[in-house]
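One example given next:
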Amino acid sequence: MTQQVRNVRVLIGSLRKASFSRRLAVALGRLAPPALRLAELPLRPLSIYDQDDEASPPEPWRVFRHEVKAADALLFVTPEYNRSIPSVMKNAIDVGSRPRGHAAFAGKPSAVISCSPGVLGGVCANQHLRQSLMCMDVPVMAGPEVYLGGVDKVIDEEGGVGVDSTRELLTLFMQHFSEWVERNGRFAEP
């Protein structure tokens, strides 16, 4: 029996084209099992969330919410800014969690991975992001947890992983994520 391919939308918490988080996202896409198809969901188009705009949401908000709802799963790849998540990631969470009672994220199996050139690998951002997701009925994969420190030394500009142990860890992470998606997805019966 062939496993169905699941569409995973990747939210990258850095807008910079050459960001370490983007490098990591590319690497994860290359290491993902064939059952997962990863595609970035851009955060740059999202204006700052303002509840006053909810009566007539901006088009980028509607597109973002639609893309999240259409996804089978979500993968959050984030750096750490000042011991927390970047504002672009927080804004995406705010846009996707509204209007109240209609969160686009609800029920989407997800995983969080963080990275940093520093030794802690974005552990605080990772934990803050998990807290926000869990309160929205988002089943977040518990493990393996990955806080990739020294990302600038193990993943090159094209998303190639130059260290065997890192490649093995990221491959394991993606395999577990694939299994998590299948166990926790709310997929319609054929």
Q: What stands out?
A: The first strand starts at residue 6 and ends at 12. Helices lie at 20-31, 59-70, 87-96, 123-134, 151-154, 164-184. The domain at 6-50+57-184 is CATH 3.40.50.360 (Rossmann fold).
